[in-house]
Each structure stands twice: as structure tokens, then as C-alpha cells.
Fold this protein.
Amino acid sequence: MSNNAFLVDTTKCSGCRACQVACKQWNNLPAEKTKFFAGTEYTNPAELSAITFNHVKFFPVDISKPEKPVWMIMHKKCYHCEKANCLNVCPQKAIIKLEGWTVIDQALCIGCGACVDACVYKVPHVLDKDLSQYGTEQPLKSGKSYKCHACTVNKRDVPACANVCPTGALSFGNRQDLLKKAEARLSKVKGDFPLASIYGVKEFDGLGVITILKNSPAVYGLPVNPKPVSAERIRTIHTVYAILDNFTLGMPSLKRAAYRISRNLAG
Ligand code: SF4
Ligand code: SF4
Ligand code: SF4
């Protein structure tokens, strides 16, 4: 795990989306074609995608006290799980830990989608068209999986999203310091938000993104006690895949077929 982490303090987030824009600019990612608005909330675009590495998620406004409505907003990106399901399932070993962050090596990726299925946070996405005029060190290619790389690929000292946050809702720094800061902040906001909680301390042995929430994680769609993938099943899939891969001639389409067969055989 990296010594550093992100701290998302939803009690300070104004929903301005500066983090979304900064990530697009720094990583040269194209804009999404969106609807106005994307969903019943104000989230736009509606979800993360292969070309949107972070987004600001709006939840229904809590109007249980009509005189004091509570806006529920959360910055979302890859959580950089210490024990990452995506990394464990990848048959190509294309997902690695780089300086403690979970990063996809697109040169090895075959677009099989195992990481997409295994991530309980629905973070990685396989790109379905060629956009290689976009991206920087990682040109956006069809049939490759993309997600936040914590600004390790297109490197900078403070990740672009954390650098621009105007309200202090998103910060970056030493993980232990941020955990202490989060605990202190939680005690302070409990007066206004009695059900406030912290997410990311223990999940998957610790996340690289610690989030202070105004309510319980479930209200924000975050899984409580998320489970690691079955090590035994993954071993079976990878063993079969290693055998079938001998007949794929290195072709991504055949490799994807080999992965599908291996997964189906494992049940
Ligand atoms: S949040 Fe998903 S994509 Fe990110 S490290 Fe965890 S399992 Fe992998
Ligand atoms: S799409 Fe498949 S090969 Fe590519 S990173 Fe995800 S699991 Fe690995
Ligand atoms: S850390 Fe970098 S790549 Fe990840 S969401 Fe922020 S700006 Fe984008």
C-alpha cells in the first residue's frame, strides 16, 4: 500500500466537479456525450467509464428535515484496494501495484473484462472504440481496460483531481495523517450528521481513498463488508487459461475466447 492516500470529505463537497474536469485535462480524456441530466440525481455523466476516471455522484437529497435539506454528494474513482479483486483475477497479470497504487498495463491487457466483473465498486471499463488520439502515456485503445491510475502514469506530485478541489473536500497526503484527520473530522460533524461514517479503513485491507460520509456507507451504495474473490476459483481459471493460451497465437480475440472458456469451465 502507498504511504499516501486520498481523503474525500463529503461534508465539504459542493458538487462543483472541478475534480472531474481536472482529470480530463491532465489525462487528455475526451468528453462524454451526456444527457441533461443523466439520471434521477444530478450525476453527470451517470457512471464512471473507460474515459471518465472520476466523477461526482449525487444521491437523492435527504429531506427528512424539510427546513434543512441535506445534499448527498460523493467524489468517486478507483479505491486502490490494498487486496484488489481486479488485480487478483486478471489472467494476463496486466494489473500491478505501482508505488502502492493499482494500475493497469494496457500493453498486456486483452480486454477480457475479468477486472470489470470482479470490482465491487464498478470502476474499470473496457473501451469499445479506438480513441488513440486521446490519452497521454496511455493512448486510449479499443479493447483495453481503463480507470484512475492515481496520476502515476501521467505523473505529478499531487494528483490533478486533488490539486484543484476548491473546498478542501478532496485532499491527498500521508495515509496515517489523513486517517487521524478523518477521525477528528468525524467527531466534529457528528453533531450535524449523527449517522456519519468513515469508509476505506479496513475494506480489502485498506483503501487508498478514505471517505467521510454524512450517513452510512450503504446510503451511498458502498458495499458493507465487501468480499474478496474466491482464490480457489481464480486459481482454476488461471490454470486452464495458461494451457489454452498456448493455442491463441498471442491474438487478443483468441485470448479473450480462452479466458471465457476457462471461466465457464470453472463454473
Ligand atoms: S476499486 Fe476496483 S478497480 Fe480499483 S483497485 Fe479496487 S478492485 Fe481494483
Ligand atoms: S480486461 Fe482482462 S486482461 Fe485487461 S486488465 Fe482487465 S482482467 Fe486484465
Ligand atoms: S488521481 Fe489522477 S487519474 Fe485518478 S481520478 Fe484523480 S486526476 Fe484522474
